[in-house]
């Protein structure tokens, strides 16, 4: 499994990149607004992220019609070679995905909540599909089960003929709220988990690791004072 960081915060991205485990970044309008982002600086901000991360950087279009999404997508793709255009899973989004993919622009279809949506996104040429997990939990439904169904269904077929540059579609487990979400997503075979920085930090932590480290340090202190 690969790990993307779900953030627009440059400091978080720099820190996660220093760990050596970061494969990409996903952003969205909410994440950009949380860091006080400005409309006229959005493209520059995406460019700064791309300078830190070699892997895919998803930048989302907020347009609602296919022509506007396509126009946004072309502009976003010009920012850097590793930009992926993020598009909501809707009729206009599917049409825009097909057009952009045919132009060789990689697309991440987001806000995916069902197997039929995922299959349509794959057929439309999406390079990445982002089923949401945590938002199902918000309405007391099982997001992990839905993710597992998407992983299985997409894995049954070869969609490389549909994607830009003939690449295989990859499933991004999104809306991740906990380290357990990551564990279960990995066991289901999701290709990527995109996680907030606080979840990424929790993934490193374990009480037995802390306890073992404390024990080692105490024993070494005995050696040092002998």
Describe the structure concisely for a colleague.
The chain is an alpha/beta fold and 226 residues long. Helix content is 50%, strand content 17%. Helix 4 (66-77) packs across helix 5.
Summarize this structure as a short list of keywords or feature phrases.
8-stranded parallel β-barrel, 226 residues, globular, alpha/beta
Characterise the protein shown here:
- This protein is of the alpha/beta class and 226 residues long.
- 50% of the residues lie in helices and 17% in strands.
- An eight-stranded parallel beta barrel has the order 1-2-3-4-5-6-7-8, surrounded by eight helices.
- Helix 5 links the parallel strand 4 and strand 5.
- Helix 4 (66-77) packs across helix 5 (91-102), helix 6 (115-123) packs parallel to helix 8 (143-155) and helix 8 packs parallel to helix 9 (179-188).
- It is globular, with a radius of gyration of 19 Å.
- The N and C termini lie far apart (46 Å).
- The model has no long low-confidence stretch (mean pLDDT 95).
Architecture blueprint of SSEs:
Elements: E1 2-6, H1 10-18, E2 22-26, H2 29-34, H3 42-52, E3 57-60, H4 66-77, E4 83-88, H5 91-102, E5 107-112, H6 115-123, E6 128-131, H7 134-138, H8 143-155, E7 170-173, H9 179-188, E8 192-195, H10 197-204, H11 207-225
Parallel strand pairs: 1-2, 1-8, 2-3, 3-4, 4-5, 5-6, 6-7, 7-8
